[in-house]
Amino acid sequence: MTAARSRIQPLLTEAVLAGRIRELGAQIAADYDGKDLIVVGLLNGVYPFFADLTRAMPMEMDVSFMQVASYHGGTHSTGEVKIIKDLDKAIQGKHCLVVEDIVDTGTTLHKVRNLLQDREPASLKIVTLLDKPSRRKTEVPVDYIGFTIEDKFVVGYGLDFDGKFRNLPFVGVYTP
Ligand code: IMP
Ligand code: MG
Known about the structure:
This protein is α/β, with parallel strands linked by helices and about 180 residues long. It has a single domain (about 15-150), classed as Rossmann fold. Helices cover about 25% and strands about 30% of the residues. It is built from 4 helices and 9 strands, in the order αβαβαβββαββββ. It has helices spanning about 1-5, 15-30, 45-55, 105-115, and strands spanning about 10, 35-45, 60-70, 80-85, 95-105, 125-130, 145-150, 155, 170-175. The protein has a 6-stranded mixed β-sheet. A 3-stranded antiparallel β-sheet has the order 1-9-8. β2, α3 (about 45-55) and β3 form a beta-alpha-beta unit. α2 (about 15-30) packs across α3 (about 45-55). It starts with a helix and ends with a strand. The chain binds inosinic acid (IMP) and magnesium ion (MG). Magnesium ion binds near residues 42 and 45.
């Protein structure tokens, strides 16, 4: 890990992440006060953010997880999103908040949003820890953003390079 770690330049420290997530949690909990909320996490990258954000929201909620794979062009020219793991609960009539680690081109989230919208939730909002707006190809409304970052490849706090570095407690810029 040491050689690889030297290629990671810290961007958001544990303390900075924790401070912003506390703010986000309080704001979101206030917005959903008294509502029947289900918080949906997109695996795998979301796991640390999801755990910290939901624990910063002092309210009742259901939680559920989903894992999707999207094909950006390539063999699937339709760009369909494939559900690898679906939610274990219905969202119809509930207020649904989707939690994502990072919005890059927006393609994945746009499709997930359409897919969940078809299930007729009472409302559907999105929160992302990180946003890279300069990379957007598909417009998708993002309701809550932790941090807006430049077009750099980041790892840590759930984000991976080739499946690695998700367990780093901070977010750093990765230079291969
Ligand atoms: P997109 O918005 O459809 O392009 O895809 C977003 C997904 O791409 C995220 O959920 C991540 O899995 C991955 N991704 C995008 N940018 C980064 C990054 O800088 N580091 C790690 N994963 C990234
Ligand atoms: Mg992801």
